[in-house]
Amino acid sequence: VNSSNHHLTLFCLCAQGRYAFKLLNDLFVNYTNALRPVEDTDNIINVTLQITLSQIIDMILTTYLWIRQVWFDAYLTWNNTDYDGLDTIRIPSSYVWRPDIVLYNNADDQFSSSMETNVVIRHDGQIMWDQPAITKSSCKVDVSYFPFDAQQCRLTFGSWTHNGNQMDLHNALDSADLADFVENVEWEVQGMPAKKNIILYGCCSDPYPDITYTLHLKRRASFYIFNLLIPCMMISFLAPLGFYLPADSGEKVSTVLLALTVFQLLVAESMPPSENVPLIGKYYIATMTMITASTALTIFIMNIHHCGPEAQPVPAWTRRFILHYLARICFVYDMGESCLYSRERELSQQSNWERISQEEGNTCLFHQQNILRNIEYIANFYHEQKATQRRNGEWRKVAKVMDLFFMWIFFIMVFFMSLLIIGKVV
């Protein structure tokens, strides 16, 4: 029994092979693939287009697509009962007429990204052509919100020579098929809807239909958050702490600006060229501007702190605004190493010197004038030293108050800039 079934199967296959060969010869006796397969040249041939997105390879949009085109050929029909019930045959696509559907916004310089595959011909004349293709299309990229940006890339398919009165296009589905899509490490596909358009060009009065697939992409920002954004935020929060360092430490002017410059170069390398400044680029520029300003202010404050004996007295408005008002806000009460003596102590010391001079004058009249001159010189020198110390102490207090004041100002600026960036992420 098994042997008889095996011979029967071989006989059927051989019979179908003979009928398929006979069918192929009968179909293409008077057939040409150079003309539209319609019985009347006034008739419109309908082509159904379906796109299956398989993979995103690169941006400027390189995609791997499965393109399915379905149409009816009026000359490739047969009665399947005459050919032992043969419903379909598969032949090379070059044998039949094919619609000249191309990607309008093609960016490939070779135009050879498609593969020559077989077509499936049904007995009623329906032809289905499944063709894998790697397409390169032009896509306008807006990096204003990089790395939290979303892009819309359009793929427009249409006939290159046939107008709408000769060949019409129809959507097989409302959107591209994403069932077999291979996930991309950088982009998340949110959809690919299809829309049919009928365009009237200025050169011709005939309509030209096309089908436009809009690929909605959203960038996966986790890589940029952990490698570019978070390090930048950490460096930004380090910059205001430079104001908290003592002026005598010698390390207040740091290399934070150099580190941010290196990160800025990394951002520039990972972005496509665009006329818009990205969000992370604006954040880096704002942070670098803030650090530059903090470095300049640090140098200015260190100059105030290290003012020498030739320093002028603190102006009245500075003493009133900084030493009294801002010092209370910044909780600066002590003078550190440059504490000043009170005015009463100076007066008491001056009276002591006068009393000593009187006692010396009473005990030794002969040396009175010399002793008084020496005592007057020592007293004047002491008063000048105390005045210099008082001025230097006031200027150092001014520098300390300015350090703390600008530290909090820059902390608030960094906090709000980081909050703005996090708000864009959410």
From TrEMBL:
Entry's transmembrane regions: 223-247, 283-302, 404-423
Q: Where in the cell is it found?
A: Synaptic cell membrane
Q: Where is the Neurotransmitter-gated ion-channel ligand-binding domain?
A: 22-220
Keyword list, A-Z:
Cell membrane, Disulfide bond, Glycoprotein, Ion channel, Ion transport, Ligand-gated ion channel, Membrane, Receptor, Signal, Synapse, Transmembrane, Transmembrane helix, Transport
**What membrane topology does the annotation report for this chain?**
Multi-pass membrane protein
Q: Chief localization class?
A: membrane
Protein origin, superkingdom = Eukaryota
Q: Which GO terms describe its molecular function?
A: acetylcholine-gated monoatomic cation-selective channel activity; transmembrane signaling receptor activity
GO CC aspect terms: postsynaptic membrane
Query: Does the keyword section mention Glycoprotein?
Result: yes
Name the InterPro entries on file.
Neur_chan_lig-bd (IPR006202), Neur_chan_lig-bd_sf (IPR036734), Neur_channel (IPR006201), Neuro-gated_channel_TM_sf (IPR036719), Neuro_actylchol_rec (IPR038050), Neurotrans-gated_channel_TM (IPR006029), Neurotransmitter_ion_chnl_CS (IPR018000), Nicotinic_acetylcholine_rcpt (IPR002394)
Listed SUPFAM superfamilies: Neurotransmitter-gated ion-channel transmembrane pore (SSF90112), Nicotinic receptor ligand binding domain-like (SSF63712)
Task: Name the family the entry cites.
Answer: Belongs to the ligand-gated ion channel (TC 1.A.9) family.
This chain's protein is named Neuronal acetylcholine receptor subunit alpha-10-like
- What is the species of this protein? Sinocyclocheilus anshuiensis
